[in-house]
Amino acid sequence: MKKKVLISLFTILIMGSMQAFCDNKEDATNLYNEAIDLYAQDQVNKSIETFNKAIELYPEFYEANYNLAQILMSLNKNDEALKPLQTILKIKPNDSETLYNIGKIYYKKGYLSKSHEALKKIKESTPQYNSAVLLIKKIEKRQEELNLENKIKEHKNYSDSKGLMKKEELAEYQAPSGIATDERGNIYVASFGENAVYKISIYGQKTLISKSALIKGPIGVAVDKNGNVYIANYLANNILKVTGENNVSVFAEIEKPYCMIYDAQHNRLYVTEQATNKLVKIDL
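Above: the chain sequence. Below: its structure as C-alpha cells.
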C-alpha cells in the first residue's frame, strides 16, 4: 500500500511539473509576442526587458534569444548579446550565423583566440563561411603582430663591461652583405659568398629565398609592399626581382649596384651605383 501511494505521489509530481512547464512556455510565448509589438512601436528598452522575462520563464526559447541578441547587437551592446547567443549555441551547436556573430563580438573585444575558435566551426557550405575566412585572416595577422610585439617587449638588452651593447647571433651566412625587412618584420639577408638570398621569419626560422644562376654577387636587398624581393646583383651589373612564386628575372640594368632601399611612400627603389658614383631611383 505504501508503495502505491509513493508511485501515485510521484506521478502527480511529474504531471504537476509538466503542467508548470507548459504554463511557463505559454506565458513566455505571450511575453515574446508582446516584446515584438513593443519593438515595432519603437519601445526598444521595454522590448528588451520583455524578451528577458520570456527567456527567464523558458530559457531555451530560441526565437526569444535570437531576437534579443539581434536587438542588442544593433545597439552595440555586444557584451549583453553574448548571453543569448551562447544560449542559441546550446540549442543549435552548429548555427553558422550565431557562430559568426560570436566570432565578431570576441574579435571586437580583442579575444582573438575565442573569436578564432568560434569562426573555425563555421562550415564551408554556409552563407557566413567567406566572411568568416576573411575575419580569420585578420585574426591570424593580428596574432602574428602581437607575437612579434611580445617578443620585442620580452627581449632584454644587456651592456658589457665597457658599456657597449651585446650582440645576439641570429643566423650564419657566407659573406653576408645586404639586409632588409618587410612590412611584417621578416628579415632578408644576401649571401655574397653563396650567391643566394635568405629569409628569417618573425619566429626566427631561416629559409632560402633564391639561389638562381642569375644571382652573381648579391649585395643590396629590398622588399616592396607586395612582398617582391629586389637584389642588387653587383657582379652582373643589374637588379634582380624575385616574386612571391620565387621566379627570378632581371628587373633593371645598373653598373655595380651596391646599397639599395625601398621607399614605400613613393613606391620606388633607391640604389647606389658604385661604378658611376651616383645615386639612382627606380619607380616600381
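The radius of gyration is 32 Å.
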